[in-house]
Design a protein that fits this description.
110 residues, six-stranded mixed sheet
Amino acid sequence: LGGYLAAVWKIFELLVGALATAGVLGVVLGFSLIPWISDIFAGIALFLDPNINVGAEVEVGGKRGRVVEIQLTRTKVSGDECIIIIPNRKFRDEIVVIYSTKPSRKDISF
């Protein structure tokens, strides 16, 4: 009986250790995905916003340029001889200035 209880106890220890490790990994993974998930929801909101289209001139976080592409997690803005890649959450978290609104179709990439 003593050997049986020792074996059950070892299995219990292994199971508890595996579950604790899985819980910690789940928390770490969950926290690491928060910015990415935030970008996705902001991208959906950005795609549905009628004021920000491809071709619109915007300023976000002090960076000004013309929107050239709207993707699910980021937006590309053409600046002064450069392309600026802006995470979509910046459009939600910061002040956005829209200098022009040009009716244009939205190109969304996944």
